[in-house]
Amino acid sequence: MKQIIYFIFTLTVSAFIPHHLLSQEYLNVSGLIIDQKTRKPLPYASIGIANRHEGTISNQNGFFSMYLVDSLLNDTLIINYLGYESFIAPIDQLEGKNNQIKLRPVSTRIEEVVIRPLTPEDILERVKENYSINYPQNPFIAEGFYLQEIIENDIYIDFVEAYVDIYNPPYNDTSKCHARLVQGRTREDLGDIQFLKRLAEKQYEKQVRKALRKGDTIDTVATPSIQIIFGGPQSNAEEDNIRNINNYYDKKTFKKFNYIFEENTWFAGRELYVIRAKSKRKIDHASIDAQLFIDKESYALVILKADMNFDIPAVLKPVLSLLRIKLHGIQMSQNVEYKMVNNRWYPHKTITTGYFEGTKKYKGKYEEYSYTTIKKAFVATDIQNKDVKPFPEEELLTDKPLREQIGEYEPTFWQNRTKIEYQIN
Questions:
Q1: Residues 6 or more apart in contact with residue 66 via CB below 8 angstroms
Q2: Which pLDDT belongs to residue 241?
Q3: 54, 18 Cβ separation under 8 angstroms
Q4: pLDDT tens by residue, 194-206
Q5: What is the DSSP track for 9-25?
Q6: How far is CA 77 from the centre of its chain?
Q7: C-alpha gyration radius of the chain
Q8: Is the dihedral of CA 333, 316, 247, 379 positive or negative?
Q9: What is the mean pLDDT of the chain?
Q10: Could you tell me the pTM of the whole model?
């Protein structure tokens, strides 16, 4: 959130066989998740196995497809959605079928007026006080599906989908998270960002002419272009709201927001406080409107939803005006969810989406227009928390573009995995 055109975000979903189980036989459970009354699909519902870490989420159309080792045939599938009753069913009743799963909204009973002795800030203080009880204090590895994508004017500029392992140090540890690639793939029809490309080419031509006059060497083969940089899979973990709890849940931060209670809701059979937080003024050039869903019993942050609208810094406005560049509609949305296993809440999904519009006028009537959407997502499909150690340095992803690190495409790796395509609404 500290750079204007540096979006860290997401959308995704893929269900797959955890890579450490590839040698085993597996079964498939799939279906469409809808509202029981309206029959409307429920996007990004959480699907998992009772008392286990395996899981996935539905796509934006409510569909999911999940591969499981056949030894789980007699286990129980659980589907959770905010504000709905949990769906619980034996896996053997769902396996191999075209399931339509109807979720029922939680009925809110009319009760006597409840006087809350605590303020929203008090609740958030308790989130901080109880985080060592609610979240894992030992290292763990989140195995999952990662997606990053840039689309400009309906043309793919960047696309990577990958299975990655993310090493997470204990939440009370300041060590950095890091990631390693299991397998990845990209598209063959990627283009260059067109917005400001003409300006970049002119600037590059000037640099070449200047270098030639001085007798310097310059790479005349390089293609000038504007680039948008992703933080990589590990950034999802590093930006974890709980991992940065000392920054988000302190009195100094509280002064920057107005907090109010909204009506309580339910998730995974648990009642949640709902706290609305709106920034009083711009923070890092963004106005923030967020909802925090906090477990009433344990004071664990379970879900975070945030919308951010960015302004151009005042110092940049004269420069952009001089170059006849306009950037507007810069927005980002984030959806973070945790999953409870053995009384600890583990990160389950991070879905962040963003977009911006830009125009550039040149001499004459020529004008560039760009509508760019960017996605970045991670969905944990399994958690390893026994005998976990940091990855060797040679296995780690580097700062190079992820597309350059995915290696050769291996069709056999992907043949039993279901990839679900997404479009931004």
A1: 15, 28, 29, 30, 47, 55, 56
A2: 83
A3: yes
A4: 877 777 777 777 7
A5: -----EE---GGGTTS-
A6: 24
A7: 23
A8: positive
A9: 83
A10: 0.83
